[in-house]
From TrEMBL:
Cellular component terms per the entry's GO annotation: plasma membrane
Record organism: Jeotgalibacillus salarius
Protein name: ABC transporter permease
Keyword Transport: yes
Ranges for domain ABC transmembrane type-1: 94-288
Length: 301
């Protein structure tokens, strides 16, 4: 009994001496569901980006002699209505969908963090102006504006690029609000007031003192955004307003299920992208929950 108590005390002392990031890392590594999800997501990312080395089939060549073939040794997941290998398109489609999600998440977090940090630090008129602009962006009907703007600019800019830019420009408002609220609370601490009083530049205070202390919140929000933006791309591509049809993506592959014959009698065409998309989104959400618990000082997990 004495030994158990002593071990418990040693464990508590060790935890107290650890940095918040070290504690968060240890808690995340102990979360089995989050670790399994991380392994799965990492595997999907690696396999998708190594697609050219895994399969040599043409992703766009139409072969009318091999249309809608069932899964076999030559075509592991069968072929689609144009005779293209489903497995090959699944790998390349994952690369596109994940790339769009990552790029949009990076742009959204960057822009939202800049706006939220400036608004929270300066307050007053600057805060009011930036937050009213943020409200204006948040009030846009997301789906309608993405479709309209994509249609307008598609003839002038690469379809994939314009999709990333438009989604990013309409999705940063939530991040800006979260970062602003954290900055407003953090800037009242004494070390921030001391930095300002000795004449530190606002940019230095924000970058060196404020942002590191709200970084955990930004990381958790990024994982949630990543999942949501992949879904947004897939939904838009499914409707025909996302990734151009000439470029395979999970959403484009799912658009084949709009035909009742394919939906009812040819499940190998749409089920692989549907399953991998669902599991990927669940994995990202589980990772987000794991990070949220890891950064929560009140969590014992």
């Amino acid at each position: 009994m004495v030994n158990v108590t002593a071990d418990s005390n040693k464990s508590q002392e060790k935890t107290i001496n650890m940095s918040p990031w070290a504690i968060a890392r240890r808690k995340f590594l102990r979360n089995k569901l989050a670790m399994i999800s991380s392994f799965f997501l990492l595997t999907v990312i690696i396999i998708s980006f190594l697609a050219p080395f895994i399969t040599t089939a043409d992703i766009s060549k139409v072969n009318i002699m091999q249309m809608t073939l069932e899964p076999s040794g030559d075509h592991w997941l069968g072929t689609d209505k144009s005779g293209r290998d489903v497995f090959t398109r699944l790998l390349y489609g994952g690369r596109v969908s994940l790339l769009v999600g990552m790029a949009c998440t990076a742009l959204v977090v960057l822009f939202g963090t800049i706006v939220g940090s400036i608004a929270g630090f300066y307050g007053g008129i600057v805060d009011s102006a930036l937050m009213r602009f943020t409200d204006f962006v948040l009030n846009f009907p997301f789906l309608v504006f993405v479709i309209v703007l994509s249609a307008i600019f598609r003839g002038y800019v690469d379809g994939l690029t314009i999709l990333i830019v438009v989604i990013s420009l309409l999705s940063w408002g939530g991040v800006a609000r979260i970062v602003r609220s954290k900055i407003l609370a953090e800037k009242e601490n004494e070390y921030i007031l001391a930095s300002v009083s000795i004449g530190c530049k606002p940019s230095k205070v924000i970058i060196k003192h404020l942002l590191p202390n709200v970084l955990s919140t930004i990381i958790v929000q990024s994982t949630i955004l990543f999942a949501g933006l992949i879904v947004a791309e897939s939904g838009l591509s499914y409707l025909g307003f996302g990734v151009p049809q000439t470029i395979p993506s999970w959403g484009n592959m799912l658009s084949a299920s709009q035909e009742s014959d394919v939906l009812a009698n040819k499940p190998w065409i749409w089920m692989p992208p549907a399953i991998i998309l669902t599991i990927t989104i669940l994995s990202i959400n589980f990772i987000g929950e794991g990070l949220k618990d890891a950064f929560n000082p009140k969590s014992n997990r």
